[in-house]
Amino acid sequence: MSLHGRDVISIRDLSREEIESIVADARRMIPYAEGRKVMRSLEDKIVAMAFFEPSTRTRLSFESAVARLGGRSLTIADPGSTSLKKGESLNDTIRMLSAYADAIVLRHPNEGSARLAARASDKPVLNAGDGAGQHPTQTLLDLATMQEAFGTLSGLRVVLLGDLKYGRTVHSLAYALALFGAELVLSAPPTLRLPDEVRDQLEHMGAKLVEEDQLHRAIRDADILYVTRIQRERFPDEGEYQKVAGSYRIDNAVLAGAKPRLIVLHPLPRAGEIAPEVDATPHAAYFRQAFLAVPVRMALLNAILGPAKGKRGG
Amino acid sequence: MVRELKITPIKNGTVIDHIGNGLALDVLRIVGVQTLDKDSTVSVALHVRSGKLGWKDILKVENMELSPRKVNAIALIAPTATISIIRDFKVQEKRTVDLPDRIVGVLRCPNLNCITNQPEPIESEFTVLRRRPVLLACAYCERQVDDFLHHLA
């Protein structure tokens, strides 16, 4: 099925084939994302950036992706400047935006807001994070980074480290990796383990799950170490946060027991989870991951808004 | 039918039978006593012998027929219930409660941060993930819920 004109709210909206196609397109977008080649597939398109929550990285990479494809962005970056402040519902704001733009990229503090927006809008909606909910383009760029490093997404052994309870982006990633038959090694502080409902679902999909609290053992045979950020705002009290905040830290000593080809990923910004000394090693792939945000979002926008497939010339 | 005579027959209204033992008062909450005709009699029978269930509860409400939404809510908390519509002392219609694939406006999402709990012009909506036992997921935030009694809208 073509992605043309579709909403992307959750990674579950995409099939394995569609994910593979976006990841492959993202690779072709790299020279355009770097400005070495020029592409104008969104020349006559306007994309609304509706950011109701602070997010520099996601917003700028989406704006960059639109600009690199020759399109224009309309940006709400400060919710205080909109009529939401005057009590307008998100539903009404989205209806208004869908009249002004060809697609809407939404970041909003409430879970489920992107699904509401997709129903309110007659233009495609791309979820750029709804509260602690879904963030499908983050998952796509995580996968693109893995694909680039290993040439495949199949059969990888991936360690998911850190907050596996509240970090929903890690749930989306685990779901996508399960589609590709990955072996997932779960390594989390006892209070932050993967919720049973997510675990059941992954096992139902046929994912191989291993629990390993000892970091050095978890990474021994791994291809990828995916480190999550522990989000302070998700904790009911500061004491609980402090207890787990310093409980894992990746440095060169930890990585000494890893395979030479192991790559370390992190959605950034990092707090203290990865020591700066790791940056200089071949394991560090998190800055590459941050760069790939632009070509991945280009590939997605192009598939949704660009010339329909089959009509594309050269 | 000596047992049936423990509560009086009704002329017009609804009999909700085969309610799981101890659940009648919860079903009564869904029916909503405050919405009833002031002359309506409500009879509640708790802990009645039942061939099918061992023990069951029964609810008879005069001069009232249930809306589809209330039937859906009853289907969630008392899935064994049967509903009979009585007109002029006769059973006009008898049916079991069936859960539809989508349940709209019946439950509140337990996720307080869900957009459906914000002042938006939308109704809550859940999809059925599993029927036995029932497991639902919010159509907006995907939060799963299996405890319905505490989340009735």
Task: Give a short overview.
The complex is a heterodimer of chains A (314) and B (153). Chain A is of the alpha/beta class. Chain A is built from 11 helices and 9 strands.
Would you kindly provide a written description of the structure presented here, covering whatever features stand out?
The complex is a heterodimer of chains A (314) and B (153). Chain A is 39% helix and 14% strand. With 314 residues, chain A is of the alpha/beta class. Chain A has two domains: 11-135 and 293-305, Aspartate/ornithine carbamoyltransferase (Rossmann fold), CATH 3.40.50; 136-290, Aspartate/ornithine carbamoyltransferase (Rossmann fold, 3-Layer(aba) Sandwich). Chain A has a five-stranded parallel sheet. In chain A, helix 3 (90-100) packs across helix 4 (113-120). The longest helix of chain A is centred in the C-terminal third of the chain and has 20 residues, at 286-305. Chain A starts with 15 loop residues before the first helix and ends in a 9-residue tail after the last helix. The model of chain A has no long low-confidence stretch (mean pLDDT 91). Chain B is mainly beta. Chain B has two domains: 3-96, Alpha-Beta Plaits (2-Layer Sandwich); 102-151, Roll (SH3 type barrels), CATH 2.30.30. Chain B has helices at residues 24-31, 68-77; strands at residues 13-20, 42-50, 54-62, 82-87, 90-96, 102-104, 125-131, 134-138, 144-145. In chain B, the strands form two sheets. A five-stranded antiparallel sheet of chain B has the order 2-3-1-4-5, with helices on one face. Chain B has a four-stranded antiparallel sheet with strand order 6-7-8-9, with helices on one face. In chain B, strand 4 and strand 5 (90-96) form a beta hairpin. In chain B, helix 1 (24-31) packs antiparallel against helix 2. The model of chain B has no long low-confidence stretch (mean pLDDT 90). Classes of the chains: A alpha/beta (314), B mainly beta (153).
